[in-house]
Predict the structure.
Amino acid sequence: MLQTPLGRFRALALLEGTSFLLLLGIAMPLKYFAGMPLAVKLVGWAHGVLFVGFLAAIPSGLTAAGWPWRKAGTLVLASLVPFGPFVLDRALRDAELQQRRG
């Protein structure tokens, strides 16, 4: 997966999606139900870095997938919705497989 630019973009998208789910599903409940605000601070910081990295990588991801620039909105929207990057991964995986086939 990490050998191609599209594979690296996929990995970044999955990391960003995972960090979002950790933030919403674990860190936020720890903060509000267990009184542990440090969880949101740490996971939120990591998610923020991954989110900005994902946004910065969108142009190279679009180029690597051979998708038109109007698809950038779909990529941004997917990063804002829980489980969105995982749904997006199927299309990215298909584009990566298509590239490998030639």
